[in-house]
Each structure stands twice: as structure tokens, then as C-alpha cells.
Design goal:
Blueprint (H helix, E strand, L loop, with lengths): L1 E5 L2 E8 L4 E5 L10 H7 L4 E5 L16 H14 L5 E6 L1 H12 L4 E7 L13 H10 L4 H7 L1 H4 L2 H6 L1 H11 L6 H12 L14 E6 L7 H10 L4 E5 L6 H4 L3 H11 L4 H7 L4
Parallel strand pairs: 3-4, 3-5, 5-6, 6-7, 7-8
Antiparallel strand pairs: 1-2, 2-4
């Protein structure tokens, strides 16, 4: 088991595959196991660094609330522990918020940036559907597995719900290996609620791909357009039949992500020169 140290907190991480490094930052309530589809697709070309956010899985739990900026510091600690001076950063949902802060505060550490199913936050972001907000007020009192199944209509596209229930079952089985507890859930909801980067997105220097499902009910696809417009040179890819968990709904999504990252990967010589002395 590998751990990075972010202040007093230990952050659990895994390294899978070889090649240019990709730091995978997962969403709310998700441990490393929840990223298995993306890890499997990227690890044939990249060194994937996946970690449990604070309050999740094998990472330390925080007794106090925290902000997305602190989660970004955890992500940098993983890069340091893994010996990677620079990496691609791929963040999904809450992880996409963390990735924005990482790209803004540590520009020299980010080769390429992928923002999946996320939002810039703040007063000008597109708000969630009221029905979804009502669901979130109830889900905190449910057990982890009950909450995961209750979230299916909000998390997956219609095609997946009708034709690929096996994919959903496999996702939930993986997530239940390290489910979040109620306090962790509340901490991450609060961190996401305070996130706001819209006025600063022009400062992102890394080549950026914004990915979103056209049927996303948890984060409006309109937020993807806001992000892509505000980040210099950003590319936008919407998957019409995908929901919030677009990786499950649209298996080709991460193949396209891999192609984008490959185009922006540093050369092998540059990677070798960038590895810090140990």
C-alpha cells in the first residue's frame, strides 16, 4: 500500500501501467475502485496515478470540513510521492473541481487537463435541477448501497438504464468495496458547494479537454460549455446519450480522452529530465 502525506493526512494512492503520468481525481463518494473503467483504458498507454480523496477509502478521514483547494494540495502530494514533477490531470465531477484548482495553482505540474462532468461553480454556474437537489437532501440519510441504487436515474443515461443494467450493477459492486460514511458525504458536498473558479479560468495554461454527458442530471451540460468557453483553447466533447457517469454510458469516451492526452504527452526525454531527484 502506498501513501502520500498532505500535511498530517495520509492519502492512499495506486500506480497502474507505464508511460506518461496521468493523475486521476475521482468524484464525490468515489474510492479508487470506482475509477476502474478509466484506469483499465488508460493504463495500457499511461502510468495512471489514482487515489482515494481525503475522507474516502484508505485515505485518512478529516474531522473538520475542508475546501477544494485543500483537496488539490492532496493531489499534489500524490504527484510528489510518486516522483512525478509533471503529469496529465483528469478530474471527474468533484474531482474536476479539484483538477481546476490544481491547474490554476500549480501550472508547472500539469501537462494536459481533462475535466469530466464538472462545473466552474460560483454564482454564474448553471444550477442543478430542483428535483436533483431534493434527492440530495434525502440521500444523506440512506445507507450506502441504498443511496447508490437510488441515484441510478440521476447518474446514468437512459440507454444504459434500459439496455446495460449489468454495467450499473458492476459499478455499484465496485463502489461498495469502500463506501463513504455520512460525515464524509457531508464534507464533500460542502467542499463542492463552496467551489468557484469561473473568474480565474483564463489562467489555465494546460491544453484542456472538457467532457460531459448530454443527459447529465447532476451537473448540467451547460456547465461544460461555460468551462470550454472560459478556458483558453479548450476543446469540448459532449456525448448525447450519456449521463453523469459518462464513462459507463459511453465506452468510447475514455478512448477519446486517451487520444487527447497522447497528443499532448511530453517526450520520453523530457519526462526523464523532469523526474525529481530522490
Amino acid at each position: 500500500m502506498s501513501f502520500a502525506h498532505s500535511g498530517a493526512l495520509r492519502v492512499y494512492y495506486e500506480s497502474i501501467g507505464r508511460g506518461p503520468a496521468v493523475l486521476l481525481i475521482l468524484g464525490q463518494g468515489m474510492s479508487v475502485e470506482a475509477g476502474w473503467r478509466t484506469i483499465d483504458r488508460l493504463a495500457s498507454q499511461f502510468r495512471v496515478l489514482a487515489f482515494d480523496n481525503r475522507d474516502m477509502g484508505r485515505s485518512d478521514y478529516s474531522p473538520w470540513p475542508y475546501r477544494v483547494t485543500q483537496m488539490a494540495s492532496d493531489a499534489v502530494a500524490v504527484l510528489d510521492a510518486a516522483g512525478e514533477a509533471r503529469a496529465h490531470v483528469y478530474g471527474m465531477s468533484l474531482g474536476g473541481m479539484v483538477a481546476q484548482e490544481l491547474a490554476l495553482r500549480h501550472r508547472d505540474r500539469v501537462s494536459g487537463l481533462v475535466l469530466g462532468a464538472t462545473t466552474p461553480g460560483g454564482p454564474h454556474a448553471i444550477p442543478q435541477d430542483p428535483q436533483v437537489l431534493t434527492f440530495f437532501t434525502r440521500v444523506g440519510v440512506m445507507g450506502p448501497e441504498e443511496a447508490a441504487w437510488a441515484a441510478v436515474p440521476y447518474s446514468y443515461g437512459e440507454r444504459t438504464r434500459r439496455e446495460h443494467a449489468d454495467r450499473i450493477g458492476e459499478d455499484i459492486a465496485r463502489r461498495m468495496r469502500h463506501p463513504p460514511d455520512a460525515l464524509a458525504y457531508l464534507h464533500q458536498v460542502a467542499a463542492a458547494a463552496s467551489h468557484s473558479t469561473l473568474s480565474r479560468l483564463g489562467g489555465i495554461a494546460a491544453p484542456t479537454l472538457v467532457v460531459h454527458g448530454g443527459q447529465d442530471m447532476l451537473q448540467s451540460p451547460a456547465n461544460a460549455r461555460v468551462l470550454a468557453k472560459a478556458i483558453p483553447g479548450a476543446q469540448l466533447r459532449l456525448w448525447p446519450e450519456a449521463g453523469h457517469l459518462y464513462v459507463t454510458d459511453e465506452p468510447d469516451a475514455d478512448l477519446e480522452v486517451a487520444r487527447f492526452l497522447e497528443r499532448h504527452a511530453p517526450s520520453r526525454a523530457a519526462r526523464a529530465a523532469a523526474v525529481p531527484a530522490r
